[in-house]
């Protein structure tokens, strides 16, 4: 089964906890703190594996969690960092954050990597908190939580040339005679329901990858028929080969078919029409094809080159392949993605991984009257605090006060005795 779009959950490893420990050797008076730091959590890394061709494996495994770092140990021994979790994906995979719809990476070449979820850093042991005023601190940090997110994997076939056209116009037959690909061919619509790839070599030694893609129908840009399943794969191609059934065997009008296909491409993405397009008049061995070709040429004009062929008898295919190879030599790759300003960029060259800094906290009032504090920064601080130790609680109070939490609550109208809720803890506001 060819699978080209899946949603999965990834969770990087949490950092290991720092330790509170003290030196207790017999001949070391006032030994002091000796708690080690925790190890870092493992990242979730996506890596291109050239041998993969589908996202099928992700249909059965949808959760990927990296390991946690080891906790710190006595005698200032640090915990070991966890190994990264490496997830293999096929070339042409785009990774999108499912919540923000931000493109995180576009992976196209073998061995290319992208960190999709960052592991948490290890918590510091009490040795790191020793000062002249407090030489034996009784606090240590818990490990930082690893990043977690839902992501969408979308596979766009890597091919230089894409065959487009209505169902049963002869795309699969053409691919089978110009390459060693063996697509399924039958005399009914939608024989091709998954992309087929073939390596084509011209008589003068040039080669390129051609994709036979599922047939288009009207409304495909809105998802009709195989819709987006087809159109997402045409985005990567540099040259479009538009195959038209010139025989009109099924009562179709070749010119109307040509116009409708281009309309579907335009309505899906205007940039698809920027690609060079070669029009192929197929089935020229059928009765009536010559007359249809003449009318088609009159309607389409002389500016658009047309290559009459018969895929079955190989008539005209040599000249067609030479033309395609010539176009590929002068046509650069088209950018697939746009940044937040609307500018094109090539994420296959620079893998995108951004961590947006947000406000340290936000405050809203719950239905029971409690002030609820949320925010990535303050929640991370909460998660890394050991509330079983008084000294750690006092440090947490100083830090949130320095963030401006007290002033923000006061401005919103918090009164003495109001309940403030942060994560799983509640405390009273004191003005």
Outline the structure in words.
The chain is 20% helix and 22% strand. With 431 residues, it is α/β, with parallel strands linked by helices. It has a six-stranded mixed sheet, sandwiched between helices. It contains eight helices and 20 strands.
Give a quick precis of the structure.
The protein has 431 residues and is α/β, with parallel strands linked by helices. The protein is built from eight helices and 20 strands. A six-stranded mixed sheet has the order 10-11-9-12-13-14, with helices on both faces.
Topology:
Blueprint lengths: L4 E7 L32 E5 L14 E3 L19 E5 L3 E5 L5 E5 L5 E5 L30 E8 L5 E4 L6 H8 L17 E6 L5 E6 L14 H8 L4 E7 L8 H15 L8 E6 L6 H12 L5 E3 L8 H14 L6 E2 L5 E2 L16 E4 L5 E4 L1 H8 L6 H14 L1 H7 L7 E4 L2 E4 L3
Parallel strand pairs: 1-3, 2-4, 9-11, 9-12, 12-13, 13-14, 18-19
Antiparallel strand pairs: 1-8, 2-7, 5-6, 5-8, 10-11, 15-16, 17-18, 19-20
Beta strand %: 15-25%
Measured between the Cα atoms of the first and last residue, the distance is 64 Å
Structural category is alpha/beta
The rough form would be described as elongated
Helix and strand run = EEEEEEEEEHEEHEHEHEHEEEEHHHEE
Percentage of residues assigned to helices: 10-25%
Overall pLDDT metric: 83
């Amino acid at each position: 089964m060819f699978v080209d779009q899946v949603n999965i959950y990834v969770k990087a490893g949490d950092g290991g906890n720092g330790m509170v420990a003290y030196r207790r050797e017999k001949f070391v008076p006032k030994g002091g703190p000796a708690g080690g730091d925790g190890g870092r959590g493992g990242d979730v890394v996506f890596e291109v594996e050239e041998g993969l061709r589908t996202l099928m494996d992700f249909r059965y495994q949808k959760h990927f969690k990296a390991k946690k770092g080891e906790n710190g140990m006595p005698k200032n021994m640090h915990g070991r960092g966890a190994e990264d979790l490496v997830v293999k994906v096929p070339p042409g995979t785009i990774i999108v954050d499912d919540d923000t719809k931000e493109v995180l990476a576009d992976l196209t070449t073998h061995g290319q990597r992208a960190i999709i979820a960052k592991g948490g850093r290890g918590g510091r042991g009490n040795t790191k908190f020793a000062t002249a005023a407090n030489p034996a601190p009784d606090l240590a940090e818990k490990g930082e939580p690893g990043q977690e997110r839902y992501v969408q994997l979308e596979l766009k076939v890597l091919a230089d040339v894409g065959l487009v056209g209505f169902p049963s116009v002869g795309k699969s037959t053409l691919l089978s005679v110009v390459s060693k690909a063996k697509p399924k061919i039958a005399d009914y619509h939608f024989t091709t329901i998954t992309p087929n790839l073939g390596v084509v070599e011209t008589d003068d030694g040039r080669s390129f990858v051609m994709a036979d893609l599922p047939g288009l129908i009207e409304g495909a840009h809105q998802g009709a028929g195989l819709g987006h399943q087809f159109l997402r794969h045409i985005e990567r191609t540099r040259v479009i080969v538009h195959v038209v059934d010139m025989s009109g065997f099924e009562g179709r009008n070749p010119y109307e078919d040509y116009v409708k296909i281009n309309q579907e491409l335009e309505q899906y993405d205007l940039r698809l029409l920027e690609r060079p397009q070669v029009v192929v008049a197929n089935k020229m061995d059928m009765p009536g094809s010559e007359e249809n070709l003449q009318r088609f040429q009159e309607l389409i004009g002389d500016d658009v080159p047309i290559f009459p062929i018969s895929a079955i008898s190989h008539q005209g295919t040599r000249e067609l392949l030479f033309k395609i190879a010539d176009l590929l030599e002068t046509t650069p790759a088209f950018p697939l993605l746009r940044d937040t300003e609307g500018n094109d960029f090539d994420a296959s060259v620079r893998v995108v991984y951004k961590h947006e800094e947000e406000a340290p906290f936000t405050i809203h009032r719950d239905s029971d009257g409690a002030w609820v504090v949320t925010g990535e920064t303050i929640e991370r601080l909460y998660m890394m605090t050991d509330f079983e130790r008084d000294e750690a609680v006092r440090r947490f109070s100083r830090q949130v006060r320095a963030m401006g939490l007290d002033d923000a609550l006061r401005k919103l109208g918090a009164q003495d005795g109001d309940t403030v809720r942060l994560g799983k803890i509640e405390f009273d506001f004191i003005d």
